[in-house]
Specification:
450 residues, mainly alpha, two-stranded antiparallel ribbon, 2% strand, transmembrane, Integral membrane protein, hexosyltransferase activity, transmembrane helix
Length: 450
Amino acid sequence: MRLPRTDQGRLLLVFVLLAAVTAFTATVPLLRDWFDLRVYHGTVDSWVHHGGRIYDYLVPGTTYGFTYPPFAAVAMLPMALLNLPAAIVVALLLNLAALGVVLRILVGRDWRRYGWFGCALTACALALFEPLRDTFSFGQVNVLLLALVLTDAWLLATGRERWAGIGIGLAAAIKLTPALFIGLLLLSRKWRAAGVATVVAAGATAFAAWVTPDASRFYWTRALWDTTRVGRLDYVSNQSVQGVLARLGEHGRPVWAIIVLLVLCVWAWRASRAVAAGEWIAAFALTGLAACLVSPITWVHHLVWLLPSFVVLVRAGHPRIAGALYAVLCTSVVWLWFDDASGIDGFLGSNAYVWITLGLLLWLPVGQLSAGRPFLERVVTATAPAPKPAAPATIPASAQPGPSSTGLATAADTGSGPGRGLARSSSSEPTGSTRPAASNPQSSSSRASS
């Protein structure tokens, strides 16, 4: 398919795509009615204004309430100043801003090459991506966490390691899944960044324990270990290894633990290769994939962590594969097996997103980005050494050679070595706001999970 070359043709195409996206999102996807945001807002409102306890609050008419660590509730305290409609507007703006940060880190300045037309096409594509649709529709925090984590990838890739680790630490204190990125920092021997992330996560958790000791005690001793507070493990939205096993009727912890160990071994091997090749975004992408697989519950909207993987595929010269996998994740195909996931078709279809995540973990290109431009441009200060005089003769001061002036150099290669280009750079603590879906999972009143 050839794209139009005139502005009139491009504008017409954009209008057609916008109409198609609008029709699709109005009929096919599951609309979530801000369910998770209502959990957050209701919890904070009950806690602040009515003396309620964080983990006692339930959304009216449901059995679901707050399941994040206590620091998440503390971070959401400003929500007590807003009514629900205002909170929805703020959540939308924050998610849009976070998505902008994510795209800026992953794409860099390349977007300028495509102008408004490329931005419009990208917006249409992102609007179709089911995990992203669900994140916005639920009022979820996934994109915010992704932005925090990728900011650390950007810091590592651009040589600004002094501040690296803060984003990962905060993300891990809000949800547990991003803690695996601390493992990546340890794996890559980024001791300072790993220490910063650990201290930030521990400090945030300790602060929450000081603010609300009873809630912290309850969460870390009871709520964390009770998966029934979050939702059914076999629910089709749970696209993790545990979800696959639960839909097969296998609920034993030993089997799950063995598979998780194998997944982590594969992740450690592949992430180490990415770090050795200097490809930080690939390393962070692999870590996001592994986190989705090993988490006991990975709802569909948690799969926003797959976005960096598609950028890596495109940068490595595999746009068709990226497009095909991305298209599957736009279809809501797993919901076809909402009522019955038995049989071969159920095993393959109801776990389609798991197979994509696992396939990316195993075959995401590593060490193939040197042919393309780096994800980020690194600013390097280079000072040329002073030339030595040929003879020890005395030279007038005005003729003395000196250091060359400091210049700015842009690293265009993606080879290995510390800090060269972002081509190297880059429960879940699920929200307990899942509620059983209605008999028609495509209706706007359905709640898939969160």
